[in-house]
């Protein structure tokens, strides 16, 4: 049943979009940006030698006691505020019991019935408008260690560096309906947390991973289908591939008269398919109970309010401000606010130059350059200061847009000052009417036939004259002035 031939799969995708709707809910595990772990003082640096960031608490030596890291609590509250969610004044840490080689405690400390953050919403910016996705809750929990199966052929090795690292599990409502919405949701969550500085969102390093819940139902049906949960998917592309495969598999089962078993599945990135791992465990299988080593977490109003006061401007507000203040289109604003570093760069450039030109140059030439060199905007070869200088040169008519592109290219080699490039290379736009008149007179006297033809009604020849003037000025003539003077002279 799991294996579908290619033709069959394509057929299903078609059938799926015609008759079925896919319903998706995500449990995102976001690593809290913090220098130490949730219940110990061990560091959390990525990429360290195995088992070098481990304290007696993290390896669960008998008698060791967890101590709550206040900073991680603040990070979770900040994130909750960013998700427009209710912050619960009382939350409880529970033990979730299970056995695994990379879990020396024999249980994970998590939050079950009483999470630190309750219901909230995230707004997606989709091509056809906005859509709100419900958040069910956000709870804090510890990460487990990592089992390594591919170093020693006969043994499994364990690295406990991750053991005890703080995670926020952000659980969405089953409100997502397509691969594009999943893409947009993950990007938005990431963007919000990066604005807040609560998670670096680095998916390659595993700072953001998700369990993906998928079900299908006939279009128009009000009831949800039975879901399958695909564990631990660590890139947006893999999430989309897993959902696509899984939705089609479920449609296939239903169409053949079968029914979906609620189960936990694994996505095989090499074979591009999901496989059954185990039937879905129930909460009671974990024997959750409040951790007797930790008191319930009680927050007072002032503690929460102090955090609220220091929340920075978030992407949705920034987008609104950019639209109102700078008169950007929602599309442009989305592009500029989605990444906090891009928004900072834009604000630096536009502070000292024309907003419209700043928008166009950043989303056009600069993005293309960064793309080509595979760089982040924080690594931009052209600084915001020099880009705003370039824009001012255009705005003041000192250089033409066309010449600006040449200068931009020169600038990208070591962040050169555009004003100096203009000086050194003599690229100033010719805007002196007397100088331009000289060139124009020359062109007119050299092309008497064309002048005659133009005067007899061949309007199209105007372009020819402009072209000749531009050519003879080495592209430096101010095109607007050339137009004006030429019109006067020819008419
Ligand atoms: P569990 O720990 O059992 O996985 P959670 O409450 O933590 O339960 O998460 C359940 C996730 O599954 C949520 O993201 C929710 O939106 C999603 N979900 C629930 N029902 C469905 C369904 N029928 N189809 C798709 N997703 C669903
Ligand atoms: Mg789950």
Structure, explained:
The chain is built from 16 helices and 15 strands. Helix content is 41%, strand content 18%. The strands form four sheets. It has an eight-stranded mixed sheet. α6 (315-326) packs across α7 and α8 (340-351) crosses α9. A hairpin with a 2-residue loop joins β5 (120-126) and β6 (129-142). It has three domains: 12-307, no CATH class; 313-425, no CATH class; 433-490, Arc Repressor Mutant, subunit A (Orthogonal Bundle), CATH 1.10.10. The longest helix is centred in the middle third of the chain and has 20 residues, at 236-255. The chain is of the alpha+beta class. It is elongated and about 95 Å long. The relative contact order is 0.10.
The number of distinct β-strands equals 15
Distance between the termini: 79 Å
Portion in beta strands: 15-25%
Mean pLDDT: 92
Main sheet: strand order = 5-6-9-1-10-11-12-13
Bound molecules: adenosine-5'-diphosphate, magnesium ion
Spell out the blueprint of helices and strands.
Layout: H1 6-19, E1 20-31, H2 70-82, E2 90-91, E3 94-97, E4 107-110, E5 120-126, E6 129-142, E7 146-148, E8 157-159, E9 166-172, H3 179-196, E10 208-218, E11 228-233, H4 236-255, E12 263-268, E13 273-279, E14 289-290, E15 297-298, H5 301-309, H6 315-326, H7 330-337, H8 340-351, H9 355-373, H10 384-395, H11 401-411, H12 418-425, H13 433-446, H14 448-455, H15 461-472, H16 479-490
Parallel strand pairs: 11-12
Antiparallel strand pairs: 1-9, 1-10, 2-15, 3-4, 3-14, 5-6, 6-9, 7-8, 10-11, 12-13
Helix pairs in contact: 1-4, 3-4, 6-7, 8-9, 8-10, 10-11, 13-15, 13-16, 15-16
């Amino acid at each position: 049943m799991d294996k579908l031939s290619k033709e069959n799969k394509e057929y299903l995708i078609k059938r799926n979009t015609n008759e079925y709707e896919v319903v998706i809910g995500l449990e995102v595990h976001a690593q809290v940006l913090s220098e130490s772990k949730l219940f110990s003082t061990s560091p959390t640096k990525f990429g360290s030698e195995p088992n070098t960031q481990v304290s007696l608490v993290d390896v669960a030596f008998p008698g060791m006691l967890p101590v709550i890291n206040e900073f991680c609590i603040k990070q979770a509250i900040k994130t909750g505020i960013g998700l427009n969610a209710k912050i619960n004044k009382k939350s409880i840490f529970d033990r979730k019991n299970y056995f695994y080689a990379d879990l020396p405690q024999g249980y994970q400390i998590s939050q079950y019935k009483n999470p630190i953050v309750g219901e909230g919403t995230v707004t997606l910016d989709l091509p056809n408008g906005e859509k709100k996705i419900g958040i069910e809750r956000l709870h804090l929990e510890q990460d487990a260690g990592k089992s390594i199966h591919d170093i020693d052929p006969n043994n499994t090795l364990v690295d406990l560096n991750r053991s005890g690292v703080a995670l926020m599990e952000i659980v969405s409502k089953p409100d997502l309906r397509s691969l594009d919405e999943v893409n947009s949701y993950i990007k938005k969550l990431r963007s919000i947390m990066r604005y807040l500085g609560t998670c670096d969102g680095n998916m390659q390093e595993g700072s953001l991973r998700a369990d993906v819940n998928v079900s299908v139902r006939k279009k128009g049906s009000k009831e949800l289908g039975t879901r399958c949960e695909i564990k631990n998917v660590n890139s947006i592309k893999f999430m989309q591939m897993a959902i696509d495969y899984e939705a089609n598999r479920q449609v296939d089962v239903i169409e053949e008269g079968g029914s979906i078993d609620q189960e936990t599945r694994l996505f095989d990135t090499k074979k591009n398919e999901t496989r059954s791992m185990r039937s879905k465990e129930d909460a009671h299988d974990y024997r959750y109970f409040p951790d007797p080593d930790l008191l319930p977490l009680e927050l007072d109003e002032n503690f929460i309010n102090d955090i609220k006061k220091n929340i920075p401007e978030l992407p949705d507000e920034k987008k609104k401000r950019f639209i109102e203040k700078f008169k950007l289109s929602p599309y442009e604003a989305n592009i500029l606010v989605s990444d906090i570093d891009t928004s900072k760069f834009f604000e630096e450039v536009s502070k000292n130059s024309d907003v419209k030109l700043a928008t166009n140059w950043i989303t056009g030439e600069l993005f293309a350059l960064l793309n080509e060199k595979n760089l982040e905007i924080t690594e931009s070869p052209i600084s915001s200061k020099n880009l705003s200088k370039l824009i001012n040169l255009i705005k003041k008519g000192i250089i033409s847009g066309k010449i600006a592109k040449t200068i931009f290219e020169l600038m990208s080699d070591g962040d050169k000052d555009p004003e100096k490039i203009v000086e050194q290379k003599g690229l100033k736009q010719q805007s002196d009417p007397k100088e331009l008149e000289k060139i124009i007179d020359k062109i007119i006297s050299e092309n008497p036939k064309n002048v005659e033809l133009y005067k007899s009604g061949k309007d199209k020849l105007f372009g020819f004259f402009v072209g000749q003037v531009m050519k003879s000025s080495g592209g430096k003539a101010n095109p607007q002035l050339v137009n004006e003077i030429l019109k006067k002279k020819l008419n």
